[in-house]
Amino acid sequence: MDAKECSRCLLNDRIPGVTFLGDSQVCSVCINYDQTWGNWSEKRKELDQIFDIARKKKRSFDVLVPLSGGKDSSYVLYLCRRVFNLKCLAVTFDNGFLSDHAKQNISNACDRLGVDHVYFRLDRGFLYTRLWPFLIHGCWANLLKLLYLA
Ligand SMILES: [Zn+2]
Questions:
Q1: What is the DSSP code string of the chain?
Q2: For the chain, what are the domain ranges?
């Protein structure tokens, strides 16, 4: 018997945990996602309103876009610049482990999209003695507190 494939995400029912209710063409993962994250057309309206507020301020930049050089943040930068037509400032936190490939991706993305970019780098001593333990343990709330107190 052929696997049933989701019409939205292409997962199929041979994958453990992926099921289809009745004749639905949409899988349980997509339905669960919709139930968890809500109505995206409403969220899109909210996002457009936020962008409109930013544009009306007529600042040098409308948004700050964290950019790692990976495909996810590069795509967000693309969306902000080309789809939402925002004036972007891309920012990369240089933790000392950025690969040359990532740096090249950052340069390519910013050049092609016409986006200004800055690297943010902390003193190595501060980074490794005070911040790295927070990063390792994923305690972002404490990290933010530390940054504001620094
Ligand atoms: Zn699906």
A1: -PPPB-TTT--BTTSTT----TT-SS-HHHHHHHHHH--HHHHHHHHHHHHHHHHHTT-S-SEEEE--SSHHHHHHHHIIIIIS---EEEEEE--S---HHHHHHHHHHHHHHT-EEEEE---HHHIIIIIHHHHHHT-HHHHHHHHHH-
A2: 1-38, 40-122
pLDDT in tens, 88-134: 999 998 888 899 999 999 999 999 999 999 998 877 777 667 666 66
- Ligand 1 geometric centre to CA of 141 (Å): 33
Choosing among 3.40.50.620, 3.30.230.10, 3.55.40.10, 3.40.50.300, the CATH entry for 40-122 is 3.40.50.620
The Å distance, Cα 18 to ligand 1 centre, comes to 8
Distance from Cα 40 to the centre of ligand 1, integer Å: 16
Q: How many angstroms is it from 121 CA to the middle of ligand 1?
A: 40
Distance 140 CA to ligand 1 centre (A): 31
Distance 38 CA to ligand 1 centre (A): 15
